[in-house]
Amino acid sequence: xxxxxxxxxxxxxxxxxxxxxxxxxxxxxxxxxxxxxxxxxxxxxxxxxxxxxxxxxxxxxxxxxxxxxxxxxxxxxxxxxxxxxxxxxxxxxxxxxxxxxxxxxxxxxxxxxxxxxxxxxxxxxxx
Amino acid sequence: xxxxxxxxxxxxxxxxxxxxxxxxxxxxxxxxxxxxxxxxxxxxxxxxxxxxxxxxxxxxxxxxxxxxxxxxxxxxxxxxxxxxxxxxxxxxxxxxxxxxxxxxxxxxxxxxxxxxxxxxxxxxxxxxxxxxxxxxxxxxxxxxxxxxxxxxxxxxxxxxxxxxxxxxxxx
Lengths: 127, 171
Known about the structure:
Chain A is an all-alpha fold.
């Protein structure tokens, strides 16, 4: 419940009416108020001027392009290495085949010569 | 609220007396009170877009003015300023206060002898015409404390007023 004001309180209220600020207050204040800034464009609405956005975009583009280029170089190097390995395998394969053929030829000749030698011994025994 | 230089100027014109009076009656010095009042309005300029209505602006100004003026008073007290410590003096006005406050009316001089928190409550009650419940909300203070400050503050002011009146009539 709001209590009614007595005589003294009424006097207080009258004496404590708001008093005006010193002469020229508003002018002095308005001189300190920062000038209205030009409305922000779409590019500056996150607080950065346009040239900073352009630099940032260039940097990002350079990083992406650099990444692609590095990837391409790595892929080419991989392909070259693969071809070298395949070539080496082919050479090794053909060499092995040659060796195998030589080994096979050599062992057949040995068998034939051994057979020939056996016949000679038997013929000698028969005599 | 919509913010243009003209709107802001009108707003300042409408509220300058309120803000300056709060600062002046808490601080007791016109120059410092003007600095505080200007800072309050500059802060309002930065905050205005977030305030929805004139009532909101009024309540915001009242609250910020009270806080800024009390902070300024504390800073002065920390520097050992005599006027800032004057409220501790008890019942009578010392001559130094009268010298510092030539532009104050008698009630303002008496008011300045109260402790700052009590002074702020009395100001909001009799200058701003707020009910104790609203003062409690505005100052984030328990309602019982507000009521007690009001009751004791008015009693002290009445006693001081009677004493100065007797001194005056004795010549």
